[in-house]
């Protein structure tokens, strides 16, 4: 029995049935998530947003268990049965779905060229991780099942995949509530008790599916979609957060370019030398991932990256030193919105001239940022490259017939066609007054 | 104009009148507080408690301004006048009162031998800090005034000292509310709106004093004292947090002993070599503090210490490597409560034998911890070494006569005589099964 | 000085400056609002929704004062000046805007044929009310000004009219927050701190206007519109609440028809005899309203109506007795949605036949209800019969230029064209199984 | 399946297993509780406190079900078994525990001379009530069991009695949270999630008992006791609420004295003629209670009493008319605290003289009030007339050994010996300036 107090869910308690979860929580790989902030660099704008991926992961496991344990009258469908059958699998996947995340999430992915999902899979499958060992001790072959479930490659049950990863899943439910509370931004709050109360397990084309009660669930689904929209607009795509993310990316790129190193931290060397990227070229799959790559990656956390930036302020390359200093003291790049390529190019040219005059590399100081084109995790707001059927939120009527939310809701219809994308040119604020 | 969203106060906005605060917030010394957790190692027990001293400092400035700007009908006393006179001073001191804090607060103080208050003073007085320069730009001699106010050496107004630092001050008000929310521990919540509403400015022996309305403020004062009592009992003195703090202290001590260093980080070397301690011997006062000491200290943050622990896991000294590994993976020492010196000595002897058998230094693995005897910041629960008149909470009746809360309240009387102290012996959990 | 504790705003305190408000609160007409529920019959569905119009009126005055007292940097516009000039007028109007409400608001209006606004005006202007006397004691002619302001006939300042009565006013702000909390329905919650923070006083076509900051206020305005939409959909138009409202209306109509009376309560007689309705024919204006009409109306409250229903359960007319019994024991009519006049007529005919067979008047038991066509107070969701310029929510950019929210926001555009109307046929549930 | 939204518990949902509860909720006797305010006249001070005994009763049933359904690892004790056996009994009793309450609770009891508990019992046992019929339809003899459980005459299980009625029961848990939220008083809030989490079923002297986990439950128990203490001090015993209660009592006494009646309301006549009191003389037991007494009593609700007061304002007895007017317009008696019988008598004599001079009955206008001596429902704060073992809160250690909270907690020890009693003399405020 292990209980946590939590600002979002108040009490998160795992009992005797959930010993597997408790054992997983105690692994080095899950404990590492304590050192990775959920919102990367957003705390630079929202000073309360210091929460870790660890507490988020606990929250997702908690919500998943609440959903699975809810007593839904009359739900004797195949889907409900399937979910009960896969209870431990779902809980393990809920807890572990983020273990591959590195510090400063998207900025780091831009440097390594590897999406964190690849590391999640590799950590679960690698025989050397504690997580793998705990899963296999629970049941032989269990690690492979968990990895496949997280990868959405789980034909045994689409419903359970969607519970963890779809437009309206337990992952998003936790992060919206948590990010809204911690940022204090007030936009992301919706009635999670009601949401869990009106969620349903139905069937679509003979397949078990997760959805909502048609009569009572449409408004909460709309509210949820709107919350997500606002959180993107105001928090995740915040102008200054994007500045910080872009600055981190360029600082690390510069560090790699000038061959910077941080003695005592082989992981940092691997990152900057591109060793992690090379691994990608060869494919980071369960079978082939070199343990050395995973073990280096496991050392990467917020502390190491911030410490590296601190050390780089004394680097002999003045560009690297300057870029690092700016991040530590929150001297963030100014950004101007541009509405056409011509406008972008005018700004890039103008600032490029200033950079040249100062003898500074434009690649480090003048950046064209298209946030919507980045690999953001959320696609409902725009188009979707994955299997689009995973993206549908179903509403079930009393007879079990399903309608898609966007067909039913003029609100969702209106939001769906919006792209929360931005095009900006970024550069040092003080350059505005020059040239 | 600058506004922050905050999970505790929702909106913290500083307007045109508060440009001084905005300038101070932008200094490197205040920005550094983003990298220092308010609760040091408590997040190891309460995973939500990741909030920084930066956001706490904003909260204290916000509450101080709310108190000062509250329109108190009929408060035409000298005290009220004095507070208005010192408005900017009070706000600056509220924001800066914690800038001297280092990472892992008390554990670090045990290593440096210097209390963080000394660094706060030194930073404010040192001509080279940005904070000093902003204060002096506002008014000549202002830095000295702010420093004296924080040091409680401000005979110009006892009331304003007490507003910032007394049994019921804006500092504690913010940290209780914030720590309660972030830990999720639920004990520290009290009605801050009512508290601000019933606070009064009165006089005691001809001196302006801060207090509460007698008729309407006693219960909220009691509730506040009880909240503080529970937060000490359950959060600040939590058994596992104390284990982590003690482990950090012994790990750093061991690192110093074996001459460990972290290349690229002169601050770490200064810390482990005792250079910061030596500074203390010579007195860190405004006049004499070496800039090098301050500038090294300014680099110490949570990131650096956690990164150092990571590097030390590979140190050639197996004791240092082991101690560091335990912290990173949350393998915390077990602790047993002891109720007499005899009992303590029995445990120390038994565990000392196991250490010896294993060839390990008992100083690093077997620890006698008396939390109450530590330099904890709160003294109302026990006795007080400072000027006891600063420790009194006054209740003012309609005629302005003051009574001390503890004389009026049987609850406070009951709590006051309690010491929330603990005596424990700590050692590795797995040793319980041996010897 | 008078302070109230409130579940919505926590502390509502009126100080020395607001003695006028305190005097108004103590009048019989304002105290009467304690006996009128804000949500009429909604508590029959949402059992927590028992809050009175009294506490709502305090809330509106509180929000108005917060808006007026907010220190808006740089707002030196004529509008800001006008608002400060009319401070006491705005506060009095905010407190008194609802004093004309009767019990079971819309159901009663259907019986009296008089909208509550008429009584509000009459009470403020009638020399015999305490409210009038307090207002005139404050300043001669003040009552007339307050009445005109509430009637939106206040050319001196459109801005102040809009602060109290427009799409985004302090009235709606309080009732949405309050109704959402009390019903527990969770849809109506928005961030009121942020809303007040981003509200602005600007100018449109040379006229002072209330609006929001363009850059920071659009999302909160959308959120507010959405909250209102959901509250209508789920709370105000709730199927069973409408049943209860319709049943009350038909029960009172039947009581009038059979000449029912309630000895000891002249107001009840006046209501049922249509004396209040006749007054309307002759015009309830400031000048002509008979004091006897107002004084009868002042006795109408929730208690009297519920007591009358109780007494009517023993009336010799079995229809009246039955209708009254159904309301007291919450035996609410069933309702079926109809999507065409043909469908409505089929149901009306079918249920009419059952009524006939039972010898019961169809007028009392079979009702065609078109909620959207009722005089609901909110028009933004549909079309508007009043001056449409009062209905516009402005967004002001940094230079003070105004845009209308619906032109700027695709969300509001989408909601605006929706009518939250319903067409239903209502009848006793048990009749479903017959004929 | 029936679900309610609730400001306190958010969602209260009764599912298929709880059809008995749903049927009981639909009875006339439970629906009547919608018309009785939980806090009687407290809304006269706390304008938000309009909540009904109906919503409180739902809350108690909800908490009881949460407690019973909580999965407590390893609780295989007899007590846990007993609780599961009596699940439906406990839930029915939880819902029905207050159905005997009349309007203005204690004021009415002073007039009828009958405690509401007697009516609760009589209603459950009387064959004519809907509640009785629903209970007997569930199981023969069930009504008698429910009545005995509520009367604490249930030797089958002390534990289940204590769950519903003891120092720390589900009734108090709901009303403290609810009254604190609705009054806005902020004192009664404690962490109910944690409370339910640390509650235990143990054994004391071979008997199953309800209690708390020793290691984790002491602080929450203390917090709960403190909340109760403050709610008594500030809300339940509020000076002005007591004035209103005393005024209601004297007004009804005067009405009885002058033979006032309210045509159309036989219940009012029965109340004022003392018919309900006479019934008490003959004993209101299950067997003997006249249906006419119960049926009259069932008509008494807040609406009827307020309407009677309205009608009495026109009564020919000027004293009754004046007393009624004062209540409706919130002209509450002034009260002075007295600290000795001499002081009381001085005030009584002085005000008696004024009454005499005015030709008014002192019995109606000058009152000596000793609130602590009233039959308040809570005894932990003072001494207890009932079986004192019902009053103990047990803490269970890991081995199941029980300690009483007051022996363990210095806080509870300190509060326990306090009597929240008051002695006051009440009279019309304007008399202060006379005589």
Automatic annotation (TrEMBL), chains A, B, C, D:
One of its GO terms (molecular function) is dGTPase activity. Pfam families: HD. InterPro entries: dGTPase-like (IPR050135), HD/PDEase_dom (IPR003607), HD_domain (IPR006674). GO terms for biological process: dGTP catabolic process. The lineage of its organism: Bacteria, Bacillati, Bacillota, Bacilli, Bacillales. It comes from Ferroacidibacillus organovorans. Residues 49-185 form the HD/PDEase domain. Transmembrane segments: none annotated. This is HD/PDEase domain-containing protein.
């Amino acid at each position: 029995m292990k209980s946590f107090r939590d600002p979002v869910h108040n009490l998160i308690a795992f009992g005797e049935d959930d010993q597997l979860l408790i054992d997983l929580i105690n692994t080095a790989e899950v404990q590492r998530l304590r050192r990775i902030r959920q919102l990367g660099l957003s705390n630079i704008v929202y000073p309360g947003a210091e929460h870790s991926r660890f507490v988020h992961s606990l929250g997702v496991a908690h919500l998943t268990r609440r959903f699975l344990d809810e007593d839904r009258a009359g739900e004797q469908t195949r889907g409900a049965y399937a979910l009960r059958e896969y209870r431990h699998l779902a809980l393990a996947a809920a807890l572990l779905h983020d273990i591959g995340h590195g510090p400063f999430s998207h900025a780091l992915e831009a440097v390594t060229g590897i999406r964190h999902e690849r590391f999640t899979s590799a950590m679960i499958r690698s025989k050397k991780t504690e997580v793998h060992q705990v899963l296999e001790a629970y049941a032989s072959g269990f690690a492979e099942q968990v990895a496949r479930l997280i990868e959405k490659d789980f034909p045994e049950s689409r419903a359970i995949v969607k519970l963890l990863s779809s437009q309206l899943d337990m992952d998003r439910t936790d992060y919206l509530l948590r990010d809204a509370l911690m940022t204090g931004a007030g936009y992301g709050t919706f009635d999670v008790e009601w949401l869990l109360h009106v969620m349903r397990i139905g069937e679509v084309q003979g397949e078990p599916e997760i959805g909502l009660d048609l009569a009572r669930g449409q408004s909460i689904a709309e509210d949820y979609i709107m919350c997500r929209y606002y959180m993107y607009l105001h928090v995740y795509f915040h102008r200054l957060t994007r500045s910080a993310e872009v600055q981190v990316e360029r600082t690390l790129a510069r560090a790699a370019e000038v061959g910077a190193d941080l003695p005592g931290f082989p992981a940092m060397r691997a990152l900057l030398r591109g060793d992690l990227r090379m691994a990608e070229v060869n494919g980071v799959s369960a079978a082939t991932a070199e343990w050395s790559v995973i073990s280096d990656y496991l050392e990467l956390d917020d502390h190491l990256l911030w410490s590296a930036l601190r050390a780089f302020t004394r680097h002999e390359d003045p560009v690297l030193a300057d870029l690092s200093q700016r991040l530590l003291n929150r001297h963030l790049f100014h950004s101007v919105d541009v509405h056409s390529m011509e406008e972008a190019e005018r700004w890039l040219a103008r600032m490029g001239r200033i950079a040249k005059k100062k003898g500074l590399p434009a690649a480090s100081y003048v950046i064209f940022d298209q946030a919507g084109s980045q690999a953001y995790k959320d696609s409902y707001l725009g188009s979707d490259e994955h299997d689009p059927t995973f993206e549908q939120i179903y509403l079930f009527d009393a007879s079990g017939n399903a309608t898609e939310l966007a067909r039913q809701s003029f609100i969702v219809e209106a939001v769906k066609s919006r792209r929360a994308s931005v095009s900006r040119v970024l550069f040092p604020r003080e350059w505005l007054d020059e040239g």
